[in-house]
Amino acid sequence: MITSMQNPLVKHVVALRQKKRRDEAREFVAEGWRSAGEALTRGARIKQVIYCPGQVHARDGVLLEDFRRRGVPLEEVEARVLRKMSTAEEPQGVLLLVEQGQFSPEDLRLAPGGLLLVVDGIQDPGNLGTIIRTALAAGVSRFCLTRGTVDIYNPKVVRGTMGALFSAVFLQGLEAGEVLGFCREESLPVLVADVKGRSLYSETKMPWPSALVVGNEGAGPAPAFKEQAYARVAIPMAGGVESLNVAIAAGIMLFEIVRQRKYAF
Questions:
Q1: How are beta strands 115-120 and 46-51 bridged, if at all?
Q2: Domains of the chain and any CATH numbers
Q3: What percent of the chain stands above pLDDT 70?
Q4: Are the C-beta atoms of 143 and 119 separated by less than 8 Å?
């Protein structure tokens, strides 16, 4: 059992809070028993499980046995050491070291009824985590993240996805031109979420497959996306409300797209 704050593994996990160190190690940290279960179910490449024996309940013990049977290294730590390693206000007793996904443009290719979600300049980790989780619930698992968007492996993003990240296929750090070039190559019409656009509900017929761009919380999508959009789409709103939180807006649009797809195929 690890009892020292100076242990190399403890220092390594703490260092992974920095994007530079995550990129160098090609690893990230996932926290909590729910994330641990999702990582196992969704086939994440888990390099190590770190847990506090005093915070293991019966069902958690079953999960640890599953990890052990699959040959995943397990490491026990004291509660105070786990708190040092954790970024959560209330650590749940387990951390995972997970290998980052390695994807190429070919991995983003869509089925006939597929949708590529482009996340442009979203800076709030909670928003990005919620968008990824909601997208997966809507059947969307392929993403492009532009430069300026928060790192998908940021601890708050990982926590916000609640395990959905392990099923995401994505490229990040792209320029708008690179995303648009990919969409042209794949013959994907680009729809851009824009409060000044036409109603997604009643004035837009979704093309399939396609790409949907959701933009920065304050500035919205980059001008390049608006200029080259197949359509600029909006959510019809009443009561004098001008805009919604970007994660909420993305969720509403994604499920409207799911509804339209149901009747398109």
A1: unpaired
A2: 8-99 (3.30.1330.30), 105-264 (3.40.1280.10)
A3: 99
A4: yes
